[in-house]
UniProtKB/TrEMBL annotation:
Domain RRP12 N-terminal HEAT: 7-280
Family classification: Belongs to the RRP12 family.
Biased composition (Acidic residues): 1065-1079
Region of interest: Disordered: 607-630, 1021-1261, 1294-1329
Organism: Sphagnum troendelagicum
Name the record gives this protein: Ribosomal RNA-processing protein 12-like conserved domain-containing protein
Superkingdom classification of source: Eukaryota
Pfam families, per the entry: HEAT_RRP12_N, RRP12_HEAT
Bias (Polar residues): 1082-1097, 1230-1246
Domain RRP12 HEAT: start-end pairs: 348-663
Amino acid sequence: MALMMENGVETDEDMCATVMARFRNSQQPEHKHLCAVVTAMAEVLREQSLTPSPTAYFAAAMSSLDRQTKSPSRNEAVTTALCTFLALALPKTPASVRRSKSDAILKLLVKLLTTEEANAATVKAGLSCVENVLVAADKSSWLALAPSFNLLLHHCLDARPKVRKRAQGCIVEVLTNLHGTHALTTASDSVVSLFERSLATVSKSLSGGKSEMAQSSNTTGAVEVLHMIGALKQLLPHLSAKAIGRILPHLGMLHELQQPLLTRTVLDTLQALCMSPSADIPAASLGEILGRLGSLLSSGERRNFVDEVTVISHVIQHGFDRLHDADHHLCVTKLPAVFHSLAGLLASEQEGIVYAAGDCMRSLVASCIDEPMIKQGVSQLQSQGTQRKGALTAIERICVTCESTLSYQYSTAWDMALHIITALFDKLGRDSAVLMVGTVKTLGDLQNLSDNDMPYRKQLHKAVGAAVAAMGPDQLLVLLPLELDGADLLKSRVWLLPILKQHTVGARLQFFSSTLLPLAARLRERACKCAADGKPIAMKNAESCVQSIWALLPSVCNYPVDTAQGFGLIAKALGDALNKEPELRGLICSSLQTLVWQNQEARGDHLEGKKWAKTRPGESSEEVSASEERAHALYTPETATANLKAIAGYSRNFLPLLFNLFVASAPEKRGDLQATIGAIASISDKQTVKSFFVAIMKKLLQATMEAATSATPVEGGGQMEVDAPKPEESATSRRCVFMDLALSLVEGLDSEALGMLFTTTKPALQDNDGAVQKKAYKVLASICQGNIGFMSLKSEEILETLLTSLSSVHSSARRHRLICLHHLILHLSKSGDGRKDEAIATLISEIILATKETNKKTRNAAYDLLISIGHGMEDPENGGSRERLLQFFSMIVGCLAGSTPHMVSAAVVGLARLLYEFSAELGHTIPDLLPSALLLLRTKSREIIKSVLGLIKVVIARLPAVELDQHLHSLVEGLILWSDDSKNHFKAKVRAIIERLVRRCGMEAVSAVMPQEHMKLLTNIQKTKKQTEKKKKSVNAMEEETDNKSVHSKASTAKRSKWNHTDVFSDDNEEDDSDDDMYESTKATSMTKASLASKYRGTTKSKILRKSNKRLPEDAMDTGGGEPLDLLDTQRTREVLRGPKSQLTKNDVDDEVEFTADGKLIVDESGDRIREKLKRKKQWEEDHPDTESQGGQSLKRRRAGDKSVSGKARSTREQAGSRAGTLQKPKKAPSSSWAYTGSEYANQKSKVGGDVKKEGKLDPYAYWPLDPKMLNRREAKRTAARKGMASVIKSTKKLQGMSASRALAPGGPIRKNKQQKAHKGKSKGKDKA
């Protein structure tokens, strides 16, 4: 069926068939009438041999409708059906036909709509018809169309809601179509006139007295006004600017009437107007209405109504956005007063009002405060100085308002006020040092409040941090000095140091040199003096402040604004600190690296592969602050070049110092030093770097010769000394050190120096020492990485060197060797060198074998190299094509003929990786590859089987389901060979793959090819699937409940990589948990509590047992990590209940860490606390000799029984051995319930017995153990238990004068009574027998 085309072009659609298809099965009477009318018209067209086109149906409907309107006995149902059909036919009728017949159509429709007999359905259909005609009519003759438009307008005031809604929608369509024409002004005037007439009617009725007629007219007029305002909600954005300007004052006056229903309707209309992007709002009228709303917020009685204030806030927010774009001067004039009114709402007791006002204020700060507004305030302040004259500027008034929100009357909303102030600091930038002086001082005063008076400490620190980032640390410390030179450091503003460290950006190096370094020096002198005076605590406090000040250096070096001028001021201090203070080397090195790399990035240098490239501001996952964006914008290529030149000027000073420190440092502390050497060398003069490089080469050659002369021959020559221990100062270790130094200088070397380094490195590639070999390959990889010119000259020699050293490569050096191959093959591909294919063919076996390396990084390097070669083979720009990719794939297929299982397995792994990456290009090769791969399943090599199963998983994931069905029989046939192998965990792997097949192809398809003896597996899979789905539904219901209860959901997500070796070739038997995840390119999983619980609940019991067996003791349960146990987490609760009872909680640990009230760690140097704890523990054991401990035995009883355990165990084992062939009836486990026996008070020193009193204890007492049967659900059991309790009460006379221990003793009266009863019971049984 053809669709209707635009511009009113007639289609071939059969209207009768369309209507019948839509309404044939409907039971509604109006739909049945519509179908009957359409069928009749179709029959008439068929009798007249007319084509059933929309035009023909339109003519037939018009004729029938005309007859109906003229008929004295009109059938309303038929009229409704005809109008409805006409509304369906008109949009499909050509616009030319509608335009030519518009007068006749409108005349007929007006006559029909003005009759009182028309029902709502007829009116709705008629209004749609009028809309279609007006849209298609000629707009130049609007005067003829105006009556029909006014008819639509009057129906907006209809008493029937559905009629009003349809009329409003029709007018919106007509007004939208009128945009850009003169008719829009006339139509808009009609809307305004109707609105003003309805207002006038209400005014007259209000002044007409209190008669019943006046009151009725008043009610009718008020309802019409509400209907008209409701219509304006949709119509107002589409009117002309002049009409909007006339209506807005009326809406403002209506809002001031403070009538709830009227106020809400007016506010909804204003909100729709301000949020409409196409509305043409006059700036003057908008400014006036926004001013009125602001005044109402400051003094109105309804400012405590949450819904109303929320809508007003939205109107102000969007209205000022429009006003700022339309008239900047008017926006600046109106903004301060409205901003002040919103600030007053922060003192409200309603939380919704506070949040609405706060969000609106932050939005106004972000959208309406601009550079001209800020500059006006700053220039006026700077010109007048301290003697202020005249009124405050707009920005000053806003700043004063924000400062006032920190007063005590807004204390309940300080968190929101601090958010607003943070936004204002971000907006003002450096100018906040002039405009926000009082605010900064107030923030400092708030910090001095106690936690009870200031519960928003985090928001406060964030606001202070925004001030640091905006105005800079130098300006902030002028307003809030650190005061670290005072007598008591605890009274200083040391709390500012962590904030400065976190938020400083775009600072001045000169400030660090002139202010912070002298302060650190004074504090160090103070620490030395305190140490001499015997004040260790004061000394530690001063040293801590020194470290905190130096910790600001990396932040100060984050886009500093005066690098070219200020670096020389701190260079000497940095060198001295590097040399004399080892604990500061990490900070200084990271700062120097940041300075170099930031400027290199700004200059446009290539930074890929460097640490900075992973964390540079533009690409970080976190949002970059406005201050950092401003600082980064100042770094132009010219500025960056000047900065690097200034830093490079000190390379002759820093490089020798760093060399010496590198050589003298321990190996684990050389990383930062090496990166810093590389950063400085990359920007230094080539000749300077070369001079240092030559000196290093001389020392390297000397160390190499010493290592050669000191080397001892190894038995079985040719074997490498890899793990033999070497002294730290040996020649080999010094050789590695100098190779590392040479490596760090690579970026600053010219071609000649690189050639010298390559020549020196070549022999080391075949060195017997694994560490030397690894360093050599690392140097070669660095040379190949970024030196295109050198690679062009030496590519053949490098290739030959790599081929020659293949036989002697050590596993620890293989990753860096693969990186060398990667760069070499990439260079050969880009240069179009014909030797590329030969090199790949020669090295393919090495690359394939590397995919089976144990080291994860080596394995990933091999995968990357395979994929890189594949893309190079396919890239047309480098002479590649799909055929060449297939040739490369065939090379790897040829490796399946390897002589060792390891080689075959590696080839399968390589094929799986390529199929995963190039599934679209290589998918057609799977039918030819799969039989050979499945044939490998018949081998006995576990390594090959494991790889083939991984390949099958990739095939199932990447092959379309239609093609997968063709290979289903062979896949299942190969998989079931290992479906019963539990020894190698293949059973679980095969099950997971078959589950995946079921999900891809369906249960029926897999069942059709599954052998009958293995159908139980499919039955179990289906059963497990149903259980899992059922659990998932319950979990989803729990999550929905949780989401409904909490507005803010916390979910941590983790992205999975495209390829995961462990998921495909996992060695454990639980890869089905992650089976679905590895097939998605990027998968984010939300690990909420409910999902974690579902993960464990969906795990089979055997898996849980296997996991619990692998679990370490400390993982068995939460051992008091400070986090409360979630009792709603069923799995976690079960783990705790199953855990060993002997585990100690945090409070039971003897060496528990203790802190003072102010958070300082208490160090027990004398050991008094530990001795006191041991004494208390010993006393407790003496007071509780029979208390259970570790397995239900008392400590004394356990110590005494240790000696007899071995003998009992031996005899038990002998008895068990003699009865090994017989089944023993399991004995009933002893009751785990605990009963208090009163033995604590037993007189153990005397044989007389009785109880004794304990000092500091209660008098002797005992508990009668309650019978758990009293809680039984059976009435008989509960009755028997109650009888037992009654007998206890009756026997109290027998127990008078007895001690608790004697009464409860085995030979006591109670136990004796029970034995007698039991004996009587046995006797009765014998008598009966």
